[in-house]
Amino acid sequence: MRTLYIIKTGSTFPAIRQQHGDFEQWMQAGLHPKHVLPTERPAMAVIDAAASGHGPLCYPEPHACAGIVISGSHNMVTDDAPWMQRLAHWLLQICHAGVPVLGICFGHQLLAKTLGGQVGMHPAGLELGTVPVSIQADVSLDPIWQHMPICFEAHAVHYQSVRRLPEGACVLAGNCHEPHHAFRWRSNVWGVQFHPEFSTGAMQGYIDHVQQDLAKNGSRLPAQNLRCSETPDAAQLLNHFARHAQNFARQPVAFQPVV
Question: Which residues are annotated as catalytic?
Answer without folding.
Answer: 105, 195, 197
